[in-house]
Amino acid sequence: MKNIRKIVSRIIMQYGTRSPFQICEKMGINILFVDLPDKVNGFFVNSAENGYRSILISKSIPDFKKEEVCAHELGHALLHSEINSILHENDPSFGLKKFEAEADFFSNLLLPKPNSNSLTQKSKFKCLTKF
Ligand SMILES: [Zn+2]
Questions:
Q1: Which stretches of 48-103 are assigned E, i.e. beta strand?
Q2: What is the Å distance from ligand 1's center to 85 Cα?
Q3: What domain range includes position 36?
């Protein structure tokens, strides 16, 4: 397991914010709000050849959830740069559990919630990873 706590505190120090939207902006990661299929919350695209990185977030989810999705995707962007793109589904049969757990852990550290127990919380998102 990567040292995610260290990565998150470094990012917060470096960019002076916990807002995943602001961090993405400062890192040059594009955020797009788009129409996605019903079960898909977000999508991370990493185009290694030209360094173009984007996070696509479903337009139709509530705002607080957009921030969570963005934080989760940012986790993939920072921790899993070897992956080209990640699609999120609610269907639990999909997914690389390790990547999901790491992205959720990242998201929970970046956006701590007073009443949640982040370590035992069930994974919020499921991924379909395309290489
Ligand atoms: Zn994910």
A1: 52-58, 85-89
A2: 10
A3: 4-130
> Distance (Å, rounded) from C-alpha 110 to C-alpha 64?
14
The predicted-structure confidence for 58-93, as pLDDT tens digits, reads as follows 999 999 899 999 999 999 889 887 665 555 555 444
CA of 105 to the centre of ligand 1 (A): 11
Q: Is 27 helix (H, G, I), strand (E, B) or coil?
A: helix
Q: What is the CATH number of the domain that holds 92?
A: 1.10.10
Give the DSSP H or E segment for 117: none
| Protein residues near ligand 1, an ion, with CB under 5 A | 100, 103, 125, 127
Give the pTM.
Answer: 0.78
Q: What distance in angstroms lies between residue 114's CA and the mean position of ligand 1's atoms?
A: 22
How many distinct structural domains can be found in the chain? Answer: 1
Q: Rounded to the nearest whole angstrom, what is the distance from the C-alpha of residue 129 to the centroid of ligand 1?
A: 9
